[in-house]
Design a protein that fits this description.
Helices cover 41% and strands 11% of the residues. The protein has 10 helices and 8 strands. Strand 7, helix 9 and strand 8 form a beta-alpha-beta unit. A 4-stranded parallel beta sheet has the order 2-1-3-4. A 4-stranded parallel beta sheet has the order 6-5-7-8, with helices on both faces. By secondary structure, it is an alpha/beta fold. It starts with 8 loop residues before the first helix and ends with a helix.
Length: 294
C-alpha cells in the first residue's frame, strides 16, 4: 500500500497534490470568503493541529477529549461551526461514526482515511488474530502516521490561511524532529525482542513496532463491554509469561484483575485525552506501557 510517511519525496508530493486538488475543489464550493477557520474532529487530531498552528490561531475542536468518535455527540453549535469553517478535517466514518451524518455530505470536509496514505493495520479479534477487510482506526499512535498527518494539516491550514504558510511548514518540520527524537529515546531503552501484553480492547497496535510489543489477547472488543468468562479462561491458559501487563483505557475493576493474577495494569487513553502536547503525551504513554511490561 502506498504511504507518504516513507522517506520518498515523490510520495510526499503525490499526497500533497491530492490534498491540494481536493482543497481547491472545496474552496470553489465555499461561499464565505471570511471563513478562514479550520475545524478538526477529535482530540488527537487537535493535538496534531496545535503542533502545526503554534504561533497562529488554532483550529476549532469539535469532539471533546474522551470522545474519539465512537461515542459522544455534536451540538447545534458544532454543526454551525462545521458550516462556518473553511475546512473540516476528520479521520472518517470508521472511527467517527457520530460525525458521519454531518460530514459525509459536507462540501468542506476532508476525511483522512480516504487518502491512500498512512500505515494501516486491520482490526484484531480478542485472540489477536487479524480480521480481514477491516481497519484499525487509531492511526495517529504510529509516529510515522503522526508526522504524515501534520504535513497534511500544514497543507490544509496553508490553504485556509496562506499568510501563515511558512509558519505551518516550519512547525510541521519541528514536530517531526521532536517526535523522531522522542521515539529514538524509547527505542534505545527497549528490549531487542518483542514482549507480550494484554489489552482491555485492542487500541495500541500502532505503537507496537516502536515499543517492540506483541499483543497476545484482549479482554473485549470494546472497553464498554465486560469480558466473557470464556475469554478470561483462554487468556490465563495461553499466557506466555507468569506475570502479564494489561493496558486499558480506564482503570479495570479489582475483581477483574483478581481473575487474571499475577497481572499489572496501566491506564492509557488511546485518544491521549490526558495530554496537552502530542509528543510528550506519546512518550509518556510509551514509557508507562514499557514499565508495566518490563
Amino acid at each position: 500500500m502506498n504511504s507518504f510517511f516513507s522517506h520518498s519525496l515523490r510520495s510526499i508530493i503525490v499526497l500533497q497534490r491530492l490534498l491540494i486538488t481536493g482543497i481547491v475543489a472545496l474552496s470553489c464550493l465555499t461561499l464565505s470568503a471570511q471563513a478562514a477557520t479550520v475545524s478538526v474532529s477529535n482530540y488527537p487530531l487537535f493535538l496534531l493541529s496545535q503542533a502545526v498552528t503554534e504561533g497562529a490561531p488554532p483550529a476549532k475542536q469539535l469532539l471533546q477529549a474522551g470522545e474519539v468518535g465512537h461515542h459522544g455527540s455534536i451540538s447545534p453549535g458544532d454543526i454551525k461551526a462545521i458550516q462556518d469553517s473553511k475546512f473540516v478535517v476528520w479521520f472518517g466514518e470508521p472511527l467517527e461514526n457520530n460525525l458521519a451524518a454531518s460530514l459525509n455530505s459536507a462540501p468542506n470536509a476532508i476525511a483522512l482515511f480516504k487518502f491512500d496514505a498512512f500505515n494501516r493495520h486491520p482490526l484484531r479479534d480478542v485472540k489477536g488474530e487479524a480480521i480481514a477487510g477491516t481497519l484499525d482506526p487509531h492511526i495517529w499512535l504510529d509516529p510515522e502516521n503522526a508526522k504524515a498527518i501534520t504535513r497534511a494539516l500544514a497543507v490544509i491550514h496553508s490553504h485556509a490561511n496562506p499568510q501563515y504558510k511558512a509558519l505551518y511548514q516550519a512547525n510541521a518540520q519541528k514536530f517531526a524532529k521532536r517526535l523522531d527524537k522522542g521515539v529514538l529515546a524509547i527505542k534505545q531503552s527497549t528490549a531487542t525482542k518483542a514482549l507480550p501484553y494484554w489489552a482491555y480492547h485492542d487500541a495500541y497496535q500502532y505503537m507496537e513496532d516502536s515499543l517492540k510489543l506483541q499483543l497476545v489477547g484482549s479482554l473485549s472488543t470494546d472497553h464498554h463491554l465486560a469480558p466473557k468468562a470464556s475469554q478470561l479462561r483462554w487468556l490465563n491458559e495461553k499466557r506466555p509469561a507468569k506475570q502479564m501487563c494489561l493496558v486499558s483505557p480506564s482503570a479495570p475493576a479489582k475483581g477483574l484483575l483478581a481473575k487474571l493474577q499475577p497481572v499489572k495494569s496501566t491506564v492509557q487513553a488511546e485518544d491521549m485525552s490526558t495530554s496537552k502536547d502530542f509528543v510528550s503525551g506519546w512518550q509518556s504513554m510509551a514509557q508507562q506501557i514499557r514499565q508495566c511490561i518490563a
